[in-house]
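Researcher: Let's do a round of design. I'm pasting the C-alpha cells now; please hold your answer until I've finished.
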C-alpha cells in the first residue's frame, strides 16, 4: 500500500507546478469559465495561491467585475474570506484598481460592505494610491443603478481626508458630484 500511495503522489504534480502551469494559460478566460460554471472550489484554490492573469487580476477581481447577483455576491464573499490582507489590497496592473473598487463600480454594495468588514483600511489605502472608490463610482461612464447607495456607503465609511482627496486627475468626489449633477451625493458630502 505504501508503494501505491507513492505512485499516486508521483502521478499528481505538486501544487506549485500546477500553479505555474496555470499561469501560462489565458487566465481571464479560465476565470470566466469557472465563474460561469460556479466552480467556487477552483476559484478559491487560485485565490489562495495568489494566481493572477496577465493584467494582474486575481479571481476576486474577476468576480467583482461581474454585475451583482446572488451567485457572484456569495462567491465574492467566499473569496474575500479566503484572502489575506495583501490579496485584498492587491491592485491589478491595467487600471491599478483593487477588487473593492471594482465591486463598488459594479454597484455590488453587499460585497463592498463585506469587503470593508474584512479590511477596514481599504478606502484609506486606495486614497494613498489616488485610486478612490468614491470618485470612481461618481465618475463612472456607466454608473450602476444604485450609484447613490454605493456612494452613500462610501461617504459614511470614509474619513474627511479620504473625502477631500484628489484622484489621479486632480479632482475630488465633490467636484465630480457637482459636475454630474448628483444632488443627494453633493448634500451628503457637504454635511
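Researcher: That's everything. Go ahead.
Model: Designed sequence:
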Amino acid at each position: 500500500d505504501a508503494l501505491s500511495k507513492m505512485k499516486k503522489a508521483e502521478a499528481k504534480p505538486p501544487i506549485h507546478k500546477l500553479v505555474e502551469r496555470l499561469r501560462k494559460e489565458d487566465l481571464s478566460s479560465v476565470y470566466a469559465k469557472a465563474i460561469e460554471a460556479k466552480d467556487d472550489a477552483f476559484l478559491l484554490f487560485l485565490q489562495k495561491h495568489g494566481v493572477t492573469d496577465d493584467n494582474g487580476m486575481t479571481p476576486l477581481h474577476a468576480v467583482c467585475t461581474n454585475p451583482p447577483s446572488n451567485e457572484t455576491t456569495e462567491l465574492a464573499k467566499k473569496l474575500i474570506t479566503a484572502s489575506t490582507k495583501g490579496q485584498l489590497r492587491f491592485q491589478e496592473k491595467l487600471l491599478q484598481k483593487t477588487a473593492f473598487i471594482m465591486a463598488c463600480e459594479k454597484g455590488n454594495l453587499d460585497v463592498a460592505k463585506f469587503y470593508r468588514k474584512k479590511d477596514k483600511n481599504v478606502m484609506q489605502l486606495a486614497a494613498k494610491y489616488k485610486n478612490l472608490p468614491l470618485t470612481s463610482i461618481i465618475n463612472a461612464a456607466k454608473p450602476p443603478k444604485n450609484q447613490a447607495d454605493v456612494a452613500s456607503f462610501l461617504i459614511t465609511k470614509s474619513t474627511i481626508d479620504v473625502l477631500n482627496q484628489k484622484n489621479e486627475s486632480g479632482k475630488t468626489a465633490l467636484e465630480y458630484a457637482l459636475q454630474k449633477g448628483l444632488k443627494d451625493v453633493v448634500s451628503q458630502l457637504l454635511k
